[in-house]
Amino acid sequence: MFDPKAIRKSFPVLDQKVNDEPLVYLDNAATTQKPLSVLTKIQRYYETDNANVHRGVHSLAERATADYEAAREKVRAFIHARSTKEILFTRGTTTSLNWVAKFAEQCLRPQDEILLSIMEHHSNLVPWQQVAEKTGAKIQFVGLKNGELDMEALKNKLSDRTKFVSMTQVSNVLGCINPVKEIAQLAHEHGAYMVVDGAQSTPHMAIDVCDMDADFFAFSGHKMLGPTGIGVLYGKEALLNQMNPVEFGGEMIDFVYEDHSTWTELPWKFEAGTPNIAGAIGLGAAIDELSALTMTDVAAHEHELIRYVMPKLRAIEGLTIYGPLDDEKRSSVIAFNLAGLHPHDVATALDMEGVAVRAGHHCAQPLITRLNTEVGATARASFYIYNTKADCDKLVEALLKTKAFFSF
Ligand code: PMP
């Protein structure tokens, strides 16, 4: 039985007061809190096994290597990749998408097109702008319909010129869940590669990269109970074999001659230098935690919170909610604005009530511009496994208080 109150006990950070009110942490789309299992795993690693990986023959190096590679296998199983050769450890989604963009530089020619959606996070947009500048390829955008991805427009914009389709599975602003499996199929019919930004989906739902048939899939550890500074790029083995390494140096070579070098095999060909060993091991522990809960139950719990809170939020007069009209199509992100108030003021007022939400453009400025908000920003609440219906009530209550306070 999924019990968020019991789950909360593993998260010491949640047990505190902020501005004399119990903390209600609703900024999970930015980063999630870490359970004791992750914190102790990292501490134990440094206390008992700390050594550099792969090169050493002594016992500590062997233990560190075994744990680091075990984490890679945990990631593989979690996203249902075929082989650990397809799992590259990176710094996070941003680095992963930059690496894919580097690969795109190898492939793109001036008449080619890159298809993105208008809801992309800057990390799935700015690297593509750089690629477009360098190669002469053009970026096309798919817009919105009823607060979600306009699939008709997507079909119209796809053509045989399209070489890369890169889209988020879940928007960090709209909260909508995009049908990436269907999009991948359409992309492949046109001979394009499908890149999926899984930063906001991997923490919240079961992922099967083979079933969705993504060519590349990127996500971050820190949004799914893991530490910062660790993330993953999944790529199909055949593509990773074609892809040049992005960074060069130790660990990624096979043999170094005076005038040239050869690369080692996958996945290490991409992991130059000493990796974030503790980060990967921490991510492995986070995956253990989520797997024990099961991703089906994680998704079901968050949907229950959404179904519970959305009618209460809609009942607040003057509150504009962005994203899909159908709550069933929403992941655990809710962006909103209170009429006449800057979202920074709303977030500050909510903080006075102990409620942590985010305010700003959420690194999605083209989307925010398209949404035509009064001030080019929104507030955003986002849920995770430890949030309860009481947290939802507190959010609603704090919003009503904020509204009453500012109406004088
Ligand atoms: N894509 C999406 C949809 C995101 O929400 C985020 C994080 N806000 C990122 C990419 C970037 O992730 P990171 O900062 O961990 O690299």
From TrEMBL:
<dbReference type="GO" id="GO:0031071">
    <property type="term" value="F:cysteine desulfurase activity"/>
</dbReference>
<dbReference type="InterPro" id="IPR015422">
    <property type="entry name" value="PyrdxlP-dep_Trfase_small"/>
</dbReference>
<dbReference type="Pfam" id="PF00266">
    <property type="entry name" value="Aminotran_5"/>
</dbReference>
<feature type="domain" description="Aminotransferase class V">
    <location>
        <begin position="24"/>
        <end position="395"/>
    </location>
</feature>
<dbReference type="InterPro" id="IPR000192">
    <property type="entry name" value="Aminotrans_V_dom"/>
</dbReference>
<dbReference type="InterPro" id="IPR015424">
    <property type="entry name" value="PyrdxlP-dep_Trfase"/>
</dbReference>
<dbReference type="InterPro" id="IPR010970">
    <property type="entry name" value="Cys_dSase_SufS"/>
</dbReference>
<dbReference type="GO" id="GO:0030170">
    <property type="term" value="F:pyridoxal phosphate binding"/>
</dbReference>
<dbReference type="GO" id="GO:0006534">
    <property type="term" value="P:cysteine metabolic process"/>
</dbReference>
<keyword id="KW-0808">Transferase</keyword>
<protein>
    <recommendedName>
        <fullName>cysteine desulfurase</fullName>
        <ecNumber>2.8.1.7</ecNumber>
    </recommendedName>
</protein>
<comment type="similarity">
    <text>Belongs to the class-V pyridoxal-phosphate-dependent aminotransferase family. Csd subfamily.</text>
</comment>
<keyword id="KW-0663">Pyridoxal phosphate</keyword>
<dbReference type="InterPro" id="IPR015421">
    <property type="entry name" value="PyrdxlP-dep_Trfase_major"/>
</dbReference>
